[in-house]
């Protein structure tokens, strides 16, 4: 029986598309539901074009017991993946799905994490601070932004001519390569991180 993945995303959804396509070729798991907090998010189109159920919700519905939590209980996910999801994840859901929510962050945590540090903001901060490297962090989600136990990090070298957009390209290629593989390993139980 395939494991069940639910993805939360807020934006264009390229990571979500990549994960759906990866698991369409896999015997391990499948993406059963994509949820977004933006009615016009491109991720809705991407998911539907790959025959994956996709729904949007309001911020109020995220924190209400009757909407998003109900959808999740019905979907029975083995893993919930935050892929470019910008809202703080509710404790009520974390309590119902302990150790089953992971996030991908476009920097090497604990650097460049926390409220407001997402996407372009992260890459700009990395360039402004003349970092010699950046990367991705995949981590468990807890009640604080970007502070859950780290599952996996991958670094990429930077040079002195980088711009936020060149950094973004390097980080995206790491995300596309590693996020599906790490999801698979977490589901197989081959990555054990003490929480």
TrEMBL record:
Purpose of the protein: Catalyzes the transfer of a formyl group from 10-formyltetrahydrofolate to 5-phospho-ribosyl-glycinamide (GAR), producing 5-phospho-ribosyl-N-formylglycinamide (FGAR) and tetrahydrofolate.
Enzyme class: transferase
Record bears the keyword Nucleus: no
Organism: Jejudonia soesokkakensis
UniProt: N(1)-(5-phospho-beta-D-ribosyl)glycinamide binding residues: 13-15
Family in the record: Belongs to the GART family.
Residues binding (6R)-10-formyltetrahydrofolate: 59, 103
Keywords: Purine biosynthesis, Transferase
EC number: 2.1.2.2
Any Pfam family: Formyl_trans_N
Residues the record marks as active site: 105 (proton donor)
Pathway of action: Purine metabolism; IMP biosynthesis via de novo pathway; N(2)-formyl-N(1)-(5-phospho-D-ribosyl)glycinamide from N(1)-(5-phospho-D-ribosyl)glycinamide (10-formyl THF route): step 1/1
Listed name of the protein: Phosphoribosylglycinamide formyltransferase
GO MF term (any one): phosphoribosylglycinamide formyltransferase activity
Catalysed reactions, semicolon-separated: N(1)-(5-phospho-beta-D-ribosyl)glycinamide + (6R)-10-formyltetrahydrofolate = N(2)-formyl-N(1)-(5-phospho-beta-D-ribosyl)glycinamide + (6S)-5,6,7,8-tetrahydrofolate + H(+)
């Amino acid at each position: 029986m395939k494991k069940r993945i639910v993805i939360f995303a807020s934006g264009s959804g390229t990571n979500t598309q990549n994960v759906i396509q990866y698991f369409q070729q896999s015997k391990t798991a499948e993406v059963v539901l994509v949820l977004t907090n933006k009615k016009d998010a491109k991720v809705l189109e991407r998911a539907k074009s790959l025959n994956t159920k996709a729904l949007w919700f309001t911020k109020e519905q995220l924190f209400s017991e009757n909407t998003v939590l109900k959808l999740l209980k019905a979907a029975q996910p083995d893993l919930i993946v935050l892929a470019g999801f910008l809202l703080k994840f509710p404790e009520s859901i974390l309590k119902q799905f302990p150790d089953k929510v992971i996030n991908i962050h476009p920097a090497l945590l604990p650097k460049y994490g926390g409220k407001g540090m997402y996407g372009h903001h992260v890459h700009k901060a990395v360039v402004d601070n003349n970092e010699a490297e950046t990367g991705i962090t995949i981590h468990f989600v807890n009640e604080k932004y970007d502070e859950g136990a780290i599952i996996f990090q991958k670094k990429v070298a930077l040079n002195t001519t980088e711009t936020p957009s060149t950094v973004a390209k390097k980080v995206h290629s790491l995300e596309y390569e590693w996020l599906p593989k790490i999801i698979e390993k977490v589901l197989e139980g081959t990555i054990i991180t003490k929480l």
